[in-house]
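Morning - adenosine-5'-triphosphate inputs below, output right after.
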Amino acid sequence: MDALKVSGISLKINGHAILDNISFNLEKGSFAVLCGRNGAGKSQLLRCMKGLVKPDSGKIFLDGSEADAKIRLRNIALVFQNAEMQIVSQSVEKDIAFGPENQGLDRTEISKRVDHALSLMGLQDKAKQRPQTLSGGELRKCAIAGILAMEPDVILLDEPFANLDYPSTLSVMRALISLHEKGYTVLVVSHEVEKFLAHTDSLLIMEGGKIMEQGCSKDIFRKLADYDIYLPENASFEDLTWLKH
Ligand SMILES: Nc1ncnc2c1ncn2[C@@H]1O[C@H](COP(=O)(O)OP(=O)(O)OP(=O)(O)O)[C@@H](O)[C@H]1O
Ligand SMILES: [Mg+2]
């Protein structure tokens, strides 16, 4: 069963083809990584999927049904590269509650979801802390927790390791692996493909607004070199499992 299906999405800006007939699908519970050079169209694709940008043509399906922008805004979560810009409240727990409050949920349900999201992201000790005082990695996790509390069908993350040091990268990576294990459908856009590859089910490579390659990560990762994306020399797929716990 596909959690998400993108079918023939095209987008032009000022006459330039930014996205050119993009089609792919994400199986329910899958973990996918999307990579490609700067300017390939990755972030614009995420914006179209989420419903923030209207493509010129194409359709998007959630759980097998066509989903308009309104439905996608509600059911697809997007964590931006500058996730800290998404933080709006005076404490971590209030920030995480912000989304569910806007969804009009009752207090008990909100509090249940906040606790769950805090524990998924390992932020229980930080619940009362002011977001401004969090470290970069904690802030990113706070942004992800806020999104999880809305219980989205699909989670999209744009460069989740940007500006993170090694320990923060590790902890966000562990959090993403744990979301995958819990059955969330996750698509990550990243230039640090070597960090994700061994943990993902599928790999998508974009260039010039097109999906050039898509398939099982293990089967097609050697093709990355055709797009100037290089992995540690002679690394086998298994060598890349540096974060497996
Ligand atoms: N408003 C706009 N006007 C003109 N061109 C635009 C506009 N918005 C985006 N683009 C172009 O669309 C292309 C795709 O941009 P996008 O941000 O999706 O790239 P990306 O693959 O995410 O790159 P990066 O890896 O650098 O984040 C780029 O060439 C960009 O210049
Ligand atoms: Mg981008």
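Note: The CA atoms of residues 4 and 65 lie 9 Å apart.

O.
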